[in-house]
Amino acid sequence: MHFEVRKVVTSIEEIRIEGGKSTSTPVKMVGVAYVIKNPWAGQGFVENLRPKITAGCSELGEEMVAAMLSHFPSGDAIEAYGKAAVIGLNGEIEHASAIIHTLRFGNHYRDAVNAKSFLSFTNKRGPAGTSIQIPMMHKDDAGFRSHYITLEMHIEDAPSADEIIVVLGGSDGGRAHPRIGNRYMDMEEIAAEKATAEAQA
Protein backbone atom coordinates (compact mmCIF):
# COMPACT_ATOMS: atom_id res chain seq x y z
CA MET A 1 0.00 0.00 0.00
CA HIS A 2 1.44 3.34 -1.05
CA PHE A 3 -0.30 5.15 1.81
CA GLU A 4 0.62 4.21 5.36
CA VAL A 5 -2.52 2.67 6.89
CA ARG A 6 -2.58 2.70 10.70
CA LYS A 7 -5.92 0.99 11.16
CA VAL A 8 -9.15 -0.02 9.45
CA VAL A 9 -12.47 0.52 11.22
CA THR A 10 -15.81 -0.83 10.05
CA SER A 11 -19.21 0.36 11.29
CA ILE A 12 -22.34 -1.68 10.54
CA GLU A 13 -25.92 -0.69 11.32
CA GLU A 14 -29.02 -2.80 10.68
CA ILE A 15 -32.25 -0.83 10.90
CA ARG A 16 -35.19 -3.03 11.88
CA ILE A 17 -37.67 -0.57 13.40
CA GLU A 18 -38.17 3.08 12.46
CA GLY A 19 -40.92 5.31 13.82
CA GLY A 20 -42.22 2.41 15.88
CA LYS A 21 -42.90 0.38 12.71
CA SER A 22 -40.93 -2.73 11.73
CA THR A 23 -39.27 -2.81 8.34
CA SER A 24 -40.33 -5.47 5.85
CA THR A 25 -36.63 -6.12 5.28
CA PRO A 26 -33.88 -4.77 7.58
CA VAL A 27 -31.73 -2.07 5.99
CA LYS A 28 -27.98 -2.56 6.39
CA MET A 29 -25.60 0.40 6.28
CA VAL A 30 -21.84 -0.12 6.28
CA GLY A 31 -19.00 2.35 6.73
CA VAL A 32 -15.42 1.29 5.96
CA ALA A 33 -12.82 3.73 7.27
CA TYR A 34 -9.08 3.70 6.62
CA VAL A 35 -6.92 5.82 8.90
CA ILE A 36 -3.90 6.86 6.85
CA LYS A 37 -0.91 9.10 7.47
CA ASN A 38 -1.33 12.43 5.72
CA PRO A 39 1.26 12.19 2.91
CA TRP A 40 1.68 15.99 2.89
CA ALA A 41 2.03 16.42 6.66
CA GLY A 42 4.98 18.50 7.86
CA GLN A 43 5.85 19.83 4.40
CA GLY A 44 4.28 23.25 4.72
CA PHE A 45 2.16 24.44 1.80
CA VAL A 46 2.48 21.91 -1.02
CA GLU A 47 1.51 23.42 -4.37
CA ASN A 48 1.36 20.21 -6.41
CA LEU A 49 -0.64 17.41 -4.82
CA ARG A 50 -0.87 15.33 -8.00
CA PRO A 51 2.18 13.06 -7.50
CA LYS A 52 0.79 11.53 -4.29
CA ILE A 53 -2.71 11.32 -5.79
CA THR A 54 -1.42 9.53 -8.87
CA ALA A 55 0.80 7.19 -6.87
CA GLY A 56 -1.63 6.00 -4.24
CA CYS A 57 -5.33 6.84 -4.68
CA SER A 58 -6.21 4.07 -7.11
CA GLU A 59 -4.66 1.40 -4.91
CA LEU A 60 -6.43 2.79 -1.84
CA GLY A 61 -9.78 2.92 -3.62
CA GLU A 62 -9.43 -0.63 -4.90
CA GLU A 63 -8.62 -2.03 -1.47
CA MET A 64 -11.39 -0.10 0.28
CA VAL A 65 -13.98 -1.21 -2.25
CA ALA A 66 -12.96 -4.84 -1.75
CA ALA A 67 -13.41 -4.35 2.00
CA MET A 68 -16.86 -2.81 1.46
CA LEU A 69 -18.01 -5.59 -0.88
CA SER A 70 -17.04 -8.22 1.69
CA HIS A 71 -20.11 -7.13 3.69
CA PHE A 72 -22.60 -7.62 0.86
CA PRO A 73 -23.49 -10.54 -1.42
CA SER A 74 -22.30 -8.53 -4.43
CA GLY A 75 -21.90 -4.99 -5.70
CA ASP A 76 -25.42 -5.19 -7.10
CA ALA A 77 -26.78 -5.49 -3.54
CA ILE A 78 -25.56 -1.98 -2.72
CA GLU A 79 -28.30 0.52 -3.57
CA ALA A 80 -26.97 3.71 -1.96
CA TYR A 81 -23.40 4.85 -1.64
CA GLY A 82 -21.20 7.74 -0.56
CA LYS A 83 -17.79 8.76 0.73
CA ALA A 84 -16.16 11.01 3.31
CA ALA A 85 -12.78 12.23 4.50
CA VAL A 86 -11.69 13.84 7.76
CA ILE A 87 -8.35 15.60 7.97
CA GLY A 88 -6.45 15.97 11.23
CA LEU A 89 -5.94 19.40 12.76
CA ASN A 90 -2.54 20.01 11.16
CA GLY A 91 -3.75 19.27 7.64
CA GLU A 92 -5.66 21.17 4.99
CA ILE A 93 -9.18 20.40 3.84
CA GLU A 94 -7.56 20.20 0.40
CA HIS A 95 -5.55 17.20 1.59
CA ALA A 96 -8.75 15.32 2.48
CA SER A 97 -10.32 16.35 -0.81
CA ALA A 98 -7.25 15.25 -2.75
CA ILE A 99 -7.75 11.66 -1.66
CA ILE A 100 -11.48 11.21 -2.33
CA HIS A 101 -12.18 13.67 -5.16
CA THR A 102 -10.30 11.89 -7.89
CA LEU A 103 -11.59 9.37 -10.39
CA ARG A 104 -8.60 7.20 -9.55
CA PHE A 105 -10.24 6.63 -6.15
CA GLY A 106 -13.98 6.88 -6.82
CA ASN A 107 -14.23 4.96 -10.08
CA HIS A 108 -13.38 1.68 -8.33
CA TYR A 109 -16.56 2.04 -6.27
CA ARG A 110 -18.75 3.25 -9.14
CA ASP A 111 -17.63 0.38 -11.35
CA ALA A 112 -18.02 -2.25 -8.63
CA VAL A 113 -21.67 -1.35 -7.99
CA ASN A 114 -22.53 -0.41 -11.61
CA ALA A 115 -23.49 3.11 -10.54
CA LYS A 116 -24.64 6.08 -12.59
CA SER A 117 -24.89 8.75 -9.87
CA PHE A 118 -21.96 10.69 -8.47
CA LEU A 119 -20.72 9.78 -5.01
CA SER A 120 -22.16 12.14 -2.41
CA PHE A 121 -19.57 13.23 0.12
CA THR A 122 -18.36 15.22 3.08
CA ASN A 123 -14.85 16.46 3.77
CA LYS A 124 -13.96 18.23 7.00
CA ARG A 125 -11.27 18.87 9.59
CA GLY A 126 -11.51 17.61 13.13
CA PRO A 127 -9.75 16.16 16.18
CA ALA A 128 -9.60 12.53 17.25
CA GLY A 129 -13.08 11.19 17.92
CA THR A 130 -14.82 13.74 15.73
CA SER A 131 -18.13 12.73 14.19
CA ILE A 132 -17.87 11.34 10.66
CA GLN A 133 -20.95 11.75 8.47
CA ILE A 134 -21.18 9.65 5.32
CA PRO A 135 -24.07 10.91 3.17
CA MET A 136 -25.43 8.46 0.63
CA MET A 137 -27.78 8.57 -2.35
CA HIS A 138 -29.18 6.08 -4.82
CA LYS A 139 -26.41 4.79 -7.04
CA ASP A 140 -28.52 5.03 -10.21
CA ASP A 141 -30.60 8.17 -9.73
CA ALA A 142 -29.77 11.14 -7.51
CA GLY A 143 -33.44 12.17 -7.57
CA PHE A 144 -34.63 9.20 -5.49
CA ARG A 145 -35.09 10.82 -2.08
CA SER A 146 -35.85 7.44 -0.52
CA HIS A 147 -32.11 6.79 -0.54
CA TYR A 148 -30.96 10.11 0.95
CA ILE A 149 -29.47 8.58 4.08
CA THR A 150 -26.48 9.27 6.32
CA LEU A 151 -24.34 6.87 8.29
CA GLU A 152 -22.56 8.41 11.26
CA MET A 153 -19.55 6.94 13.01
CA HIS A 154 -16.47 8.01 14.93
CA ILE A 155 -13.04 6.64 15.81
CA GLU A 156 -11.86 7.46 19.32
CA ASP A 157 -8.16 7.83 18.46
CA ALA A 158 -8.37 9.23 14.93
CA PRO A 159 -7.59 11.34 13.13
CA SER A 160 -4.32 12.35 14.76
CA ALA A 161 -3.08 15.78 13.71
CA ASP A 162 -1.07 14.25 10.84
CA GLU A 163 -3.68 11.70 9.66
CA ILE A 164 -6.62 11.45 7.29
CA ILE A 165 -9.65 9.22 7.76
CA VAL A 166 -10.93 8.04 4.37
CA VAL A 167 -14.39 6.43 4.38
CA LEU A 168 -16.73 4.62 2.01
CA GLY A 169 -20.40 4.13 2.86
CA GLY A 170 -22.81 1.60 1.40
CA SER A 171 -26.39 0.54 2.04
CA ASP A 172 -28.60 -2.24 0.70
CA GLY A 173 -31.69 -0.02 0.87
CA GLY A 174 -33.00 3.46 1.51
CA ARG A 175 -34.77 4.85 4.55
CA ALA A 176 -36.99 2.35 6.31
CA HIS A 177 -40.35 3.96 5.48
CA PRO A 178 -39.85 6.64 2.80
CA ARG A 179 -42.98 8.64 2.04
CA ILE A 180 -41.99 12.10 0.78
CA GLY A 181 -41.73 11.16 -2.89
CA ASN A 182 -38.90 12.00 -5.24
CA ARG A 183 -37.79 15.26 -6.78
CA TYR A 184 -39.49 14.44 -10.10
CA MET A 185 -42.88 14.39 -8.38
CA ASP A 186 -42.13 17.85 -6.98
CA MET A 187 -41.15 19.11 -10.42
CA GLU A 188 -44.43 17.86 -11.90
CA GLU A 189 -46.51 19.35 -9.08
CA ILE A 190 -44.76 22.73 -9.28
CA ALA A 191 -45.14 22.83 -13.06
CA ALA A 192 -48.84 21.99 -12.77
CA GLU A 193 -49.38 24.65 -10.09
CA LYS A 194 -47.60 27.22 -12.23
CA ALA A 195 -49.68 26.32 -15.29
CA THR A 196 -52.89 26.60 -13.24
CA ALA A 197 -51.87 29.96 -11.82
CA GLU A 198 -51.01 31.28 -15.27
CA ALA A 199 -54.31 30.03 -16.68
CA GLN A 200 -56.22 31.79 -13.93
CA ALA A 201 -54.28 35.05 -14.26
Walk me through what this model shows:
Helix content is 28%, strand content 33%. By secondary structure, it is of the alpha+beta class. The chain has a single domain (5-176), classed as BB2672 (60s Ribosomal Protein L30, Chain: A, 2-Layer Sandwich). Strands 1, 2, 3, 4, 5, 6 and 7 form a seven-stranded mixed beta sheet that branches. The mean pLDDT is 95.
What is the structure about, briefly put?
By secondary structure, the chain is α+β, with helices and mostly antiparallel strands. It is built from four helices and seven strands; from the N terminus they run ββαβααββββα. The chain has one domain: 2-Layer Sandwich (60s Ribosomal Protein L30, Chain: A), CATH 3.30.1330.
Give the helices and strands, then pairings.
Layout: E1 5-18, E2 21-37, H1 50-69, E3 80-87, H2 93-100, H3 103-112, E4 120-125, E5 132-138, E6 149-153, E7 163-171, H4 183-200
Parallel strand pairs: 3-4
Antiparallel strand pairs: 1-2, 2-7, 3-5, 3-7, 5-6
Helix pairs in contact: 1-3
